[in-house]
Design a protein that fits this description.
Helix content is 69%, strand content 0%. By secondary structure, the chain is mainly α. The protein has one domain.
């Protein structure tokens, strides 16, 4: 059963990674990078403070940072070293068939050795889920953003679809748990704001 899942994951990866075009390479590289998203993160912070007032907004900001820390540490700090599943770009059987990009120095970007599960996916889906819960379903569009960020990792050849799916689930669960804590703290803060 596990072998069938792994084979299906490799086949789906091969198909999705094969959907590349020269004009899309820099776009996916940009989407996968962290620094281009800083203005977006600033926008999220501003929206939380404007919509939730100062104290609740700060608690929400701390909460979303906690979601990312939990999701990132669980995937990168526990899952990757525990499962030791090579990234597609490092997998001996397929590495030469994987579409990878080159960095500014002309070196092929292949990521670290292990890829299960994707911390990019965990972080993006964790943020999307927290915002979705925080604003009562009005921020659904963030799941599209999370999906695009996650897909960029397949495009770059550094994650299998299974890495992305499991990472996304880790992020969603982290967001759900942290949001429950936020709900416990938030009512007392709301009284102080009025």
């Amino acid at each position: 059963m596990l072998e069938q899942l792994i084979n299906a994951d490799i086949q789906l990866f091969t198909f999705l990674n094969g959907l590349h075009a020269p004009w899309l390479d820099p776009v996916m590289w940009w989407i996968s990078a962290r620094t281009p998203w800083i203005p977006f993160y600033v926008f999220l912070v501003v929206m939380m403070i404007l919509r939730l007032r100062w104290k609740r907004g700060l608690i929400a900001i701390v909460s979303i940072v906690l979601v990312v820390l939990i999701a990132d540490r669980f995937t990168s700090g526990f899952m990757k070293p525990y499962f030791e599943r090579p990234r597609p770009s490092h997998e001996k059987l397929i590495r030469d068939k994987v579409h990878v990009l080159k960095d500014r120095n002309g070196n092929e970007y292949r990521g670290g050795a292990y890829g299960f599960a994707s911390s990019h996916s965990a972080n993006a889906f964790g943020m999307a889920m927290f915002m979705f819960l925080l604003f009562r379903g009005r921020w659904r569009w963030m799941f599209v953003w999370a999906f695009v960020v996650a897909y960029s990792r397949i495009y770059l050849g550094v994650h299998y679809p299974g890495d992305i799916i499991v990472g996304g689930l880790v992020g969603i669960l982290a967001a759900w748990g942290v949001f429950r804590g936020y709900q416990l703290v938030s009512p007392s803060i709301a009284k102080e704001d009025t």
